[in-house]
Amino acid sequence: MTYKNLDSSSAFKQLQAMPASNLKHVLNPARIKTYHAKAGGGLTYHYGAMPIAEEHLNVLQQLSEELSLTEKYQAVVDGQVMNTGEKRLVLHHLSRGQVGKPVSADGEDKGAFYQAQLQKIERFSSQVRSGAILGSTGKKFSTVVQIGIGGSDLGPRALYLALKGWCASKEIELIDAQFISNVDPDDAQAVLNNLDLESTLFILVSKSGTTLETLTNRDLVIQAIEASGIRGIDPAKHMVAVTSKTSPLATSSSVLESFFIDDYIGGRYSSTSAVGAVVLSLSFGFDVFNSLLDGAHEADVLALNPNIKENAALLDALLGVYLRNVLLYPTTAILPYSQALSRFPAHLQQLDMESNGKHVNRDGLSISYPTGPVIFGEPGTNGQHSFYQLLHQGTDIVPLQFIGFSESQYHKDIVVEGSTSQEKLSANLVAQIVAFALGKDDVKPNKQFTGNRPSSLLSARQLDPQALGALLAHYENKVMFQGFIWNLNSFDQEGVQLGKVLATKVLDGCKGDEVLKAFSELL
Ligand SMILES: O=P(O)(O)OC[C@H]1O[C@](O)(CO)[C@@H](O)[C@@H]1O
């Protein structure tokens, strides 16, 4: 298996020498009907509005082979040490099914370990939902509150919001979920203001068990329960923990139950582990969460296919690298035409930018080509009335990743002026793709649209648990493949450490650091 920097690849050099296709000239119905690939869970990845032709696809296929991209993925799922920075295995795929060989580490079968945790979560969540487990004053739990930050918040929160409407439409009994993440005390307070503490179960989630924000918010919540004056209420009976067995939280006796992850699943990849399983199984029931795992597993299996035209995540990764490293576009927008995906761009921001925002390769050597783009996004059509002006007419070209569904989740809609709201939503999505690609001439310069602005589309019939699981896994696998292409270690995040260390110094009185002290005096 070859590990080399992108700029030493002959296929990449070939790609750099090829002119891009101009979308204004190449976008046509036949191409739209041809340029798509299955992404699992009923999702399809459409790439007809990308500035490439068959020649580019052939060279991208060569690039994939030259850099052994699917072999590297195989090494991940077979349990090789692919997190080179921390010398760890990378096992998030195993949390939703076995894709490679059985993996053993720390003297245990890791697949069996994740399965055992899932079974424990299934039992616990069904006991809470049925009322077999009650709060300390005898009330049934009707709200869960996840306390966590980064990967212990963004993914689970995005998935919860994504499926709430679908579950309601299926008349699945919902336990409301809320989230506390920021160390800003107003975040916790705003959630606490509306809680009936007797019927609330807090889910404390921290893989490391050392994250300042999460531990602070745990203490804030415990104090709020103690200060509530509710007779007989016991904070320990209103809190469960999700952590790794080696963390300081693992031995805590002040929780009702503990669920475990391990060091082989990174925070931003942990939504399909206990980190997402506990809150989603409590809220929607374990079966819904299990369907999400099925969708993710299907996408994981598809991602092993060495043929880039049949491997949506790999192709998305390669096309993304083409845009970033050949056309040198520095950002990417994630534009879901689905309000239920309102926090999905925020999750992808962490997934992508914490994984591939790196300037040294997996061996610690400097690299001289751009790596991960800046990721941002908002649901459409809201974004159209906000930042799309720059996307259409700004001086930077921003590649766009649209996500859309032909059916709504609730199936409750009205016809106004001959069309439903869902039809209006889909019409806007299609119109945007075409407007970005083809542009429009006008005699007035300020009304001109230059066009040739690339986009892709991930679409499905409906945002259901399988489609959502596949969507999540698609992006995890895309980011992983891009990390391989850039020769990075996508699985550590040393870039977040310096700020944490300096914040601790500030709290300790900035001993010997005048610059920190000067800034501290401002707040
Ligand atoms: O689950 P933990 O250990 O509290 O970490 C929370 C988040 O903090 C980070 O380590 C970054 O500071 C993320 O990678 C992680 O998702």
In words, what does this structure look like?
The chain is an alpha/beta fold. It has three domains: 38-91 and 291-493, Rossmann fold, CATH 3.40.50; 93-290, Rossmann fold (3-Layer(aba) Sandwich); 494-523, no CATH class. Helices cover 42% and strands 13% of the residues. The protein has 18 helices and 15 strands. The chain has helices at residues 10-17, 23-26, 29-34, 54-66, 69-77, 110-130, 154-169, 185-192, 212-226, 274-284, 286-302, 312-326, 344-356, 388-393, 421-438, 465-485, 497-507, 514-520, and strands at 36-40, 43-46, 104-105, 108-109, 143-147, 176-180, 200-205, 239-244, 257-261, 331-337, 374-377, 400-405, 415-416, 419-420, 455-460. The chain has a six-stranded mixed β-sheet with strand order 1-2-15-12-10-11, with helices on both faces. Strands 6-5-7-8-9 form a five-stranded parallel β-sheet, sandwiched between helices. It has a two-stranded antiparallel ribbon with strand order 3-4. A hairpin with a 2-residue loop joins strand 1 and strand 2 (43-46). Helix 5 packs across helix 16, helix 7 (154-169) packs antiparallel against helix 13 (344-356) and helix 11 packs parallel to helix 16 (465-485).
